[in-house]
Structures are given as C-alpha cells and as structure tokens.
Amino acid sequence: MQTTVTLRDVAQAARVSVSTASRALAGGGLTSRGTEIRLQRIAAELGYRPNTLARGLKTRSSRLIGLVVHNLANASFRVLAEVVQSRLRAEGYRAILCITADDPEQEAETIATLQEQRADGVIICPTGRNGTLLAALDRGGTPVIGVIRRDEAAELDCILAADPEGAYAGTNHLLELGHRRIGLIVGRQETTSGRERLSGYRRALEEAGLRFDPTLVHAGRYEPETGLAGCRQLLDRPDPPSAIFVANHESSFGVLRGLAERDIAVPDRISLLCYEDMPGFAWQRPAISVVDSGAGALAELAAERLLQRLRPGGATPSTTAREFRIGARLIQRQSCAAPSFQEA
After folding, report:
1. How many whole angstroms separate alpha carbon 287 and alpha carbon 279?
2. Of 68, 218, 286, 322, which cross-links 98 as Cys (Cβ 3.0–4.6 Å)?
C-alpha cells in the first residue's frame, strides 16, 4: 500500500525545517530561488502533492487564480492563458483555466466553483450577463480583472484593446485601397468588443462620405459558424462587397471556408482583412492582413494589475476600478488589394 508523502517528509529529506519547506514550495520569493528549486526537485522525486485546500484554510490564501475565457480557438485567449500562467507562476500562484463557451450559465457556474475553491483572484473575459455576480465577488475581497470585454453591470478593473481605433484603422485601410462596399462580420452587439468594432467601422465610412449600410453587417456569436453564415450571406447579394472585414476572430475560420467553397481567390476577387493575429494567418497563402489587438500586452497588464491588488495593502475595488487600453495595430500582408472592378 502506497503511503502519502507529507511536507515533513520533504523537509527531512532536504534537511530543513517544515516551515522553510512550506515557504519554499509556496514560492513567491519567501525563500531564496535556489532553495525553492532544490525543494521543488526533492518534492517531485518523493511524489509529494500539497493539499491546496487545507493550506488555503490555514493561510486564508489558496494561491489559486481563476482564468476564465470562452474557448481556446481564439488566438488571443491562447496567448492570454500562456502569458498569465507564466506571470502568476513566477509570483507563486497557479492558474486554473476555465472555459465557458461564452455561455452565461456556464460562466455563473464557474464563478461559483472558483468561490468554493477559495480562489485568490479572477481574470475573466465576461459574457456580459453576470456582472452582479462578478461585482459581488470583487467587493467580497476576491479581486476580479476583466479582459478583452467590459461587463457594463460591474465596476471592475478592465484591460481592453483599442477596438474602436483598430476597426477604424482596418476599415480605413480598405477604403484607401479603393473599396466602397465593405462587408463586416462582427461579434454580438451586447459585448464591448462587438459594439466598439462596429463603431470604428461606421466612423471610417462616415468620414469617407459613405452611407452606412446595415445589410453589409453580419453580427453573431464568436464562432466559425457565424463567419460561414455571414460570408455566404454577403456573397449571395446581387451587389456583393469587394472586401470583407472579419472583426470577430473565431469567425475568420468560417469565412476562409466560405471563400474556399466558392473557389473565390483572395485578393484577386475579394480582399480579406481579419481581427486578432495568429501564426496561421502569416503562413496562409496569401498571408492574411490583420488588425492585431496586442494579446500579449493585454495579458501582461491583466496579470500585473491583479498582482497589485493581491499584494499587502493592495487597492480596494471602490477606489481603483479603472479601464486600461492596449493599442491595436494594422499588419499589412497580401490579402488586401485594390478592387478588381469599379464599384458604384
């Protein structure tokens, strides 16, 4: 019968006190880095597994952080997960990755689970439907940082991309190439990103003296099916657009499929501009032009803001709820060109 390895066993093997072993395995600079590495190696060799819940009850800190995103198809969410986990680990915390599928019910269940597990903090891309729960969590002493989207019903720290400016720059780029009918596939309008990207698109059109045509806009859930449906709808028009701006990252995959279905060459027959960069876009032939939202910088700032709240004397939500913006930038590749026909 296998016996359970205890913290005392690790301490004896390392020839240190139990308190020193505990501090070293907790990380976060409570002991020297050399001691931490040596104790972690010995603990791994012995097969020691800390009782996180018991430790949390004793110290009132679980050292667990909830990272809540909709999916891992979105390149920004993958970057967010990698960067946040690395940054938190360096401070002695562990990230719990939670997937909600942009579903309010799953999000509410996730929030409850993180409360039960005594998470020290939460970084979340909210659905926009559980602001009351998030606000209560934040007021109750568990810092909550919103990323990518803002929940209008909760006064939370938010780290957002400059979506209005990004969508404006992308639309303006297509206008400068000579496009006048630009299809837009965008996220749900009850979300921050969906509304703000639409507003940037509209502003660019209006400044160019063009009338906003709502029939050129397809809004929907953040998923490939939205892109496929929107692409088909736009191409079936008697006056199809000469360019499509996919301002909903997950929908980009559906648009690529929709264009391939009809054997439509990019950019010879239609220009394509997407939102949020990913390695696959640079490898695509032609390489896809994008408006990049700066996911790495978003993640770094979200982690740092949360850590500031968790440090002794950290700011309280009532005095510090702030909004931070990370600049978006246009990356020009080969998927956008002047229209192949004269537009009316």
Report:
1. 10
2. 68
Q: Do strands 94-99 and 144-147 pair parallel, antiparallel, or not at all (unpaired)?
A: unpaired
Residue 6 and residue 48: Cα distance in Å, rounded? 7
Strands 323-326 and 64-69 turn out to be: unpaired
* Alpha carbon distance 302, 322 (integer Å): 12
Write a three-state SS string for the chain. Answer: CCCCCCHHHHHHHHCCCHHHHHHHHHCCCCCCHHHHHHHHHHHHHHCCCCCHHHHHHHHCCCCEEEEEECCCCCHHHHHHHHHHHHHHHHCCCEEEEEECCCCHHHHHHHHHHHHHCCCCEEEECCCCCCHHHHHHHHHCCCCEEEECCCCCCCCCEEEEECHHHHHHHHHHHHHHCCCCCEEEEEECCCCHHHHHHHHHHHHHHHHCCCCCCHHHEEEECCCHHHHHHHHHHHHCCCCCCCEEEEECCCHHHHHHHHHHHCCCCCCCCCEEEEECCCHHHHHCCCCCEEEECCHHHHHHHHHHHHHHHHCCCCCCHHHHCCEEEECCEEECCCCCCCCCCCCC
Angle (CA) 100-104-105 rounded to 5° is 85
Farthest-apart Cα atoms in the chain, separation? 81
Strand partners, 331: 290
pLDDT in tens, 265-307: 999 999 999 999 998 999 999 999 999 999 999 999 999 999 9
Query: Cα–Cα distance between 160 and 146 in angstroms, integer?
Result: 8
